[in-house]
Protein: Tubulin nucleotide-binding domain-like protein
Amino acid sequence: MKEIIYIQAGSISNYVGTHFWNAQETYFTYEEGDDPYVNHDVSFREGQTLKGEPTFCPRLLLFDRKSNFGALGRGMYGEEESENAVLSQWNGAVDELRQPAVPKSKYQTCLESGDDVSQEDSKDIRYWSDYSHVSYHPRTPQRLPDVADYENTEGDWELSRDAFTKYNESTDLMEDAFRFFVEECDNIQGLQIMNDTSTFGGFTHSFLSAFRDEFTKLPSWTFSFLSDSIPVSLNVDDPRSIMKALNDALCLQGLNGLSTMTIPFYSPLLWEKGSWLSEIDLKDSLFQSASIISTHVETITLPLRLKNSQHTMTNLSSALTTRGNQRIGHLAGTFPVQENVRDLETKLYDLTLNTSKLSKPDQCSGCVDVSRGFSEPLKLKHSDWRGGWRQGAIIVESPAILPPTSFPRYFKSGTTPSSLSALTTLTTTSRTASLFGQYAKLADNCTKQYAHVIQQMGLEMDDVKELRDTLHVLEDEYRGDETNSDDEDELGEDEE
Structure:
């Protein structure tokens, strides 16, 4: 058994993470004789509720602001904490001011009552906890204090780092909650992180720094959700937009040095419409877009949890970084897949560069493909197609996706199929050079025109100059021998 410890930090990450864990629970089998194809112990720990009932809980630390938790219970495995639990420790007079409790969602109410659970509509979702189906260990929810209404810390790198320092000092996070999950593991294989850069970028950087102080060689994969401010379409009259984009650049620079593999995502607000969404009626809903991201994150990491799989975070990371020390990966995919190889050619969408224009001649260090629910003919077509494009690609075939009851009802067919197919591919590629190049230009412009933004973020001018130079070095490293700058131009055209 090779356990993974999971970290989720931020609202977007927890929307994606809730779908991720609901999908994990569909692998549990309850009929005698059924043999699951996933090793549950990789991601779940076994325990007991306060009533002595056996339960499985994710090996997870979940960070967010208190107001974003919704009706998620504070007690053991989701049971509500007693109202008098804290007051019983105080003998003095009490003037109690209690805010009304957040009512449970329709989905949660049906789960608790044992009624038939129907699929959620986007309009019914207020918080990521509204559609959560799993039980959490008491150490999993990590509630950070809310910020005042007049404060806007989004995109503020230094305040985000300071939040980690204060929270770690007040809760002894690393020595208590994190170490609890580590010490339960027999043979930990690594850390999987999802984080929002705009609100938890500096926080995650500080967490990973503390992690690396003790676990210098343990692999970590970070799925990082960038803000909706990108350099090529930046509103230069809005300091907040500049701040968020510069914060993204700082996050990419920091993660490149701390995480074994980092997979950035552009905001779903910036997604292109096109053939890759031909089967889905996608609304402007984080609940819906998070399910698509989660499907691909869950699919590409599935080999780490499959029974009898030889794949680990260590060997897959090595396979992806065969050409130098390239730690930034591109995640692309298509979902759902029809029985047509053209779906693989025309509907593969790069969620890292936010484009469906995947040019084949780019230099590629490594490639991992994971397919879900492919028929035998499609498996052969996929193997031939991929073999002609990426020599030496790792291809993992796995069963179809069984969507949980919480899955969005966004299919144009009008119903959610009982099983779904998907293809997800993770690559390290020269196309990443354009990503670093755009942020390097932003950092350079900040040193010349936006000194007030740098000051507002609590940064020194030398910090931003160093960031600019580091990003240019990374741009050159990822571009390699490729002299064609079409990728960079293409990124600008796509984003505009």
About this structure: The chain has one domain: 4-81+109-432. The domain at 4-81+109-432 is CATH 3.40.50.1440 (Rossmann fold).
